[in-house]
Amino acid sequence: MSPPPKFSYSTVPGYFLQDDDTTIPQNFDYISTNFGLVNRTYSSDTHDEDQKDSTTQWQRFENEVKGLNDEADEGVVYKVLYLGRHGQGVHNVAEQRYGRAEWDRHFASLPGDLHGPWSDAHLTPLGISQALAVHAFWAHQLPHALTPAPQSYYASPLYRCLQTANLTFQHLNLPADRPYRPIVKERLREVFGVHTCDRRSRLSLLKSEFPNCAFEAGMSEEDEWWEAGHRESDAEIDVRVGRLLDEVFGADESSFISFTSHSGAICSLLRVLGHREFRLATGAVIPVLVRAERQVMDR
Fold this sequence. Notes:
The structure is a single chain. The protein has helices spanning 49-53, 57-71, 90-98, 100-105, 125-145, 159-169, 203-209, 234-251, 263-273, and strands spanning 7-11, 76-85, 112-113, 116-117, 152-155, 183-184, 214-215, 256-261, 285-294. It has 299 residues and is an alpha/beta fold. α5 packs parallel to α6 and α8 crosses α9 (263-273).
């Protein structure tokens, strides 16, 4: 198989509150802010005031994205990525119990404690509630704000992300041409290595428990990416996530795409995309408007 084409990435500012340096991530509420979409006019807006008043901000933004793609130079594409972090996992609770320093020093490398296991961590009851809150928000947004549903769905193969993606998108009244059919990709995983919460379960188990998911070709039965003695650096995860983006942007023609992933992986995605640092709480979602330009490779 030939390698995917390579792209250079940037985010397009001015459309979402999360793009603005004055927006404080810790105080950001994706629900009360309409996913952070800024209430503004666009160059693509109609001059018919009555028609403008009858359309939602999201409808006008969707038309703006279409216009950007219609007018883009050859090799340039614009996509909106809905970046969602999984709900609270049992490992998040364990880290809070022991503190970050002791978690990183000792406990993260263990498979669990007297409270239970956290290897390939599952959601807590709160984490399930957080994912269901995203579901409820989408259920409101689709018919009322007319937020564009994702055309494609990608998820990390770690258990908590598959739980979150299903709880979020299953049973929504989605458009017939945008069904929820998640594609599971290894490169969307959390930082590899050392922490057992980030060690993937056997593929056969995941397939049996998440039969609606399409696991990418070539995924091994056992986790061959996780190493007990090495934790990925920021530089290493950025290379891995950059390859993921190249795969998606090179093969997927969708303009609105959902990623269900992890704190560290989303931080890496934002770095590779050239976005400001914006850490998500468990269960939170932010959209990002991305400009990608295909790189011309020397022959």
